[in-house]
Design brief:
three-stranded antiparallel beta sheet; eight-stranded mixed beta sheet; globular; 11 strands; alpha+beta
Length: about 260
């Protein structure tokens, strides 16, 4: 299944500090840095009962002093029934995101000389300069990035020697994932994001990728318009579920696709 192959590559490209495979579910922990690395994702068929497995997951995250969060991909056969069981246990859904994919054209071979493949030590300060997301946990961001298996691309687009946009690309066999794309707030609406992603796709094609994928939150319409222009199309969705604490209201949709 194409969707599951993208999901596997995406999980490998955004590693957790601890990951367990539990009867078809993947349990991930990263000390709270991003929901994707601190949640339970069902991917493969299960044998045990959902109630028994949910109890186990809740104990796991309770020991880690974190809320239990489930991440349900739309292609997984178990997602719909699991969502009903979770809702009966007081969970609510939030932050639906889209996974988009595209086939990489063989014409994507010309390098953009403004794109630089830099080290993680050089890339991370640029990312932190452009993005304040999870700013208090950036030390964990670096720790997770160090776990990514090569080959990878820490991409920075320079204009007259000054960085204007950056992104992360991770290649796994035929799949090229694009993450952490951000433009300097002072340089937005100038086409640098499009130029960056186009150059990253060319790098992926040059290094043997046949497909590219990325994740974008449902409410980020500007990013979706950009990716559609670059040939990306919706592939599948995923969303999160979390247990509501007493007196807590369901959050509005927003934030990142992490």
């Amino acid at each position: 299944m194409f969707e599951r192959r993208i999901e596997e590559a995406g999980l490998n490209s955004w590693p957790a500090l601890q990951q367990l495979l539990f009867d078809g579910w993947i349990i991930r922990f990263a000390r709270g840095y991003t929901k994707r690395a601190n949640s339970v994702t069902p991917i493969y068929p299960s044998q045990l009962s959902s109630e028994e497995k949910i109890d186990h997951c809740e104990r796991f995250y309770e020991q880690k002093q974190l809320p239990t969060i489930f991440r349900l991909p739309s292609f997984a056969a178990e997602s719909a029934s699991l969502e009903r069981v979770l809702e009966q246990r007081g969970y609510y859904s939030f932050e639906r995101s889209h996974v988009w994919s595209t086939t990489l054209s063989s014409t994507l071979t010309e390098p953009d000389l403004a794109l630089h493949n830099v080290s993680l030590a050089s890339w991370l300060p640029i990312y932190c300069q452009f993005s304040t997301r999870y700013s208090e946990l950036q030390h964990l961001h670096g720790e997770l990035l160090e776990r990514i298996p090569p080959p990878f691309l820490y991409a920075v687009l320079y204009l007259e020697g000054v960085p204007v946009a950056c992104g992360l690309g991770v290649l796994e066999h035929e799949m090229f994932g694009i993450f952490d794309v951000v433009t300097d707030p002072a340089q937005r609406q100038k086409g640098y994001g499009t130029r960056l992603v186009t150059a990253m796709l060319a790098w992926g094609r040059q290094h043997g990728a046949h497909y590219a994928y990325l994740q974008v939150i449902e409410t980020n319409l500007i990013a979706q318009q950009l990716y559609a222009k670059l040939g990306f199309q919706p592939c599948y969705d995923y969303w999160y579920l979390k247990k509501r604490n007493e007196g807590e209201m369901s959050p509005s949709t927003g934030g990142s696709a992490f």
